[in-house]
Q: What sequence folds into this?
């Protein structure tokens, strides 16, 4: 007899033995009820686990109830996809955070295309590769990336020997931006590397001059790599020229790197906590300053186009009563965002971190930095134009259509 036949006979004998046992029907029925009930209970628990618990399950059922009523009763034809997208968008909109938003699958594809076409500061555009690295998809001619020998198809896996395969595109770009005022190494694959030299094309984001009122004027266009050192060097030069006060212009500054802001604030302020970067899970990065500081009258100019780290700079100086903030209220974009892809191809652009001042003030929650003196410019094109003005230390003779700057110079005088 074959092994297959023997196995079949054994199975038949087992079932025969079971069926020959005399068991009352009510016990059989009870056992079936227990088995079915247990299966239903396990299924229900699994459903609750999938949606996050009873409250989330109730919310999901409410959405389904509304959807079903609309489909059954609404007079026009209904697109389930559109209804779902609008519901998801409304959910994120309900957070009250204008920097967080939902993207449908089509919108997210467009977003990915646009961000892929954004050039990192060294003149290349990158996308996340399946291997975890970052594939170069295009390179600008005569850019630092091109001169270093990078080409489309290269896959970047490290920056200055730091592995970046676990980082997002935003994080990788930020790391590259932080190196843009000098030389750094990009790792390609497992063994190859290439040196990128940005020092030859680096342009300072700081301009300064000594006003006739004896105040030093420092205009900071952004807080990208090198800004902290450049701003400090500008103030040192102004002090050597005899500056007795400082006017720091952050109008139109889109922000940049918190490390550059920290370097600048550490130079200006005495010892203490400057600011805190915090996330939803409670992780905190505290940035502090040492005892060295600049003790001069300081005015900071801001407007509605002052963003992010520039707002943080103004808020910290204001909170420490180290400067008078003058101009217009800022935007309140001091939260950091992350793109989270959903299972159906849609995505969330969600605020997952925020900057707090040393006193734990959330600038974004307050809607931005409110100046100590609110002044509007009657001529927006005149911003920063005081070259060639005349005036003594009183500031009374200065001439410019930049009303905000004129008021700051008078205040400092």
A:
């Amino acid at each position: 007899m074959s092994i297959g036949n023997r196995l079949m006979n054994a199975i038949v004998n087992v079932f025969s033995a079971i069926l020959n046992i005399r068991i009352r029907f009510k016990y059989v029925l009870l056992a079936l009820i227990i088995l079915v009930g247990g299966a239903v209970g396990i299924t229900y628990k699994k459903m609750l686990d999938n949606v996050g618990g009873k409250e989330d399950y109730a919310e999901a059922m409410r959405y389904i109830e509304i959807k079903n009523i609309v489909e059954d009763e609404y007079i026009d034809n209904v697109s389930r996809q559109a209804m779902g997208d609008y519901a998801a968008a409304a959910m994120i909109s309900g957070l009250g955070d204008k920097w967080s938003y939902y993207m449908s699958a089509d919108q997210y594809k467009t977003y990915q295309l646009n961000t892929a076409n954004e050039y990192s500061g060294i003149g290349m555009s990158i996308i996340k590769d399946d291997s975890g690295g970052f594939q170069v998809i295009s390179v600008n001619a005569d850019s630092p990336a091109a001169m270093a020998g990078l080409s489309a198809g290269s896959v970047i896996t490290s920056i200055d020997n730091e592995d970046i395969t676990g980082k997002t595109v935003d994080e990788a770009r930020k790391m590259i931006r932080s190196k843009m005022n000098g030389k750094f190494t990009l790792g390609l694959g497992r063994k190859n590397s290439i040196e990128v030299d940005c020092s030859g094309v680096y342009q300072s984001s700081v301009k300064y001059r000594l006003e006739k009122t004896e105040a030093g004027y420092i205009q900071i266009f952004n807080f990208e790599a090198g800004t902290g050192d450049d701003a400090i060097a500008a103030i040192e030069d102004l002090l050597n020229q005899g500056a007795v006060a400082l006017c720091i212009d952050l109008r139109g500054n889109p922000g940049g790197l918190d490390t550059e802001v920290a370097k600048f604030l550490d130079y200006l302020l005495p010892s203490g906590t400057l600011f805190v970067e915090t996330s939803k899970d409670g992780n905190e990065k505290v940035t502090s300053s040492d005892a060295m500081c600049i003790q001069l009258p300081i005015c900071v100019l801001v407007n509605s186009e002052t963003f992010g780290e520039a707002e943080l700079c103004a808020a910290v100086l204001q909170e420490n009563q180290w400067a008078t903030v003058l101009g217009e209220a800022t935007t309140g974009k001091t939260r950091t965002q992350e793109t989270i892809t959903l299972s159906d191809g849609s995505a969330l652009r969600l605020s997952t971190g925020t900057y707090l001042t040393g006193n734990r003030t959330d600038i974004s929650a307050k809607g931005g930095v409110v100046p100590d003196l609110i002044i509007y410019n009657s001529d927006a094109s005149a911003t920063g134009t005081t070259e060639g003005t005349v005036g003594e230390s009183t500031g009374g003779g200065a001439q410019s259509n930049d009303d905000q700057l004129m008021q700051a110079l008078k205040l400092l005088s």
